[in-house]
Amino acid sequence: LIHYADDGVVGVILNQPTKMPLSEVFPGKTKGKNRADPAYRGGPVEETGVLALLRSAAAPEEAANVLEDVYAATGERLLSESVSAEKGPEVFRVYLGYCGWAPDQLEMEIEAGAWRVIDGTADLVFDREPATLWRRLFQKINLRMAHREALNPALRFVPAYLGRFETEIEKNPPAVLPVRQAFSGVRKVRRGDAEAGLPERL
Fold it and tell me: What is the pTM of this model?
């Protein structure tokens, strides 16, 4: 999640790289014309909009701090500078579109058991193997739940309920793994000026 406030929630999908290289997302950038690292599908909202997550020791201008040293960038200048500087995917990732929830919507979905919540970290955002990220984190959460049950037998009824949910979710794993991180003073994600058509299949 990159924006969590009373007016709603905004997030991006972390584990869906597309087949579109950054050279096609930013075709006018001479220094980025050979960039083969992919853009990511950020979500179903405004899929022609562009935003990025940037890892930086110093706070960049026109960027909102998300967690630790990770910043969300939506302004054309910062996006262009990052592409031209040839920042690698270990510190810079571009997303097409985003995920959005109305006020209280995400909380209701969590209470209904639709989401598992974990703390966000920079290493998760810039994981080197995004294709396996969801399954690895899901296994980690299961182990944590089993440990809590062993310490407190009163919680044994919880895995029994979640076991049915997990059976269904493993058949059709969701594309989005929410990473909850609340922060304040951040403007809403805006549609980027740089636009590009999406590939037929993401």
Answer: 0.72
